[in-house]
Amino acid sequence: MVRKAYVVANLEVITDKDKFRDYERGLINALAKHDGKLLTYSDNVLCLEGDKPPKGRLVVMEFPSQDHVEAWWADEDYQAASDIRREYSVTNFIARLDELPPRN
Prior knowledge:
The chain has helices spanning 17-33, 66-74, 76-88; strands spanning 5-14, 37-42, 57-63, 89-98. The protein has 104 residues and is α+β, with helices and mostly antiparallel strands. Residues 4-94 form the DUF1330 domain. It comes from SAR86 cluster bacterium.
């Protein structure tokens, strides 16, 4: 059974919001190309517990499988868009999470 995969990203600082929109457009196009979906993002994260809450923007994306995430990440168009993200933001992390296994 193929399980879904998720990508969670934390961008601490976006230094130029106007130029960063070029990255956002590239991200959306690359997600569509690899059957991914932007589930949500927030610049106003409320940390309910813990002493090191993430700063800045949290992003959650969904993909049909791990293979889809790998293809999206390796995509030349997405990597070109990522160059914009790297130039106009500080990225703390981008992580892949697997869907929960079936529970019996």
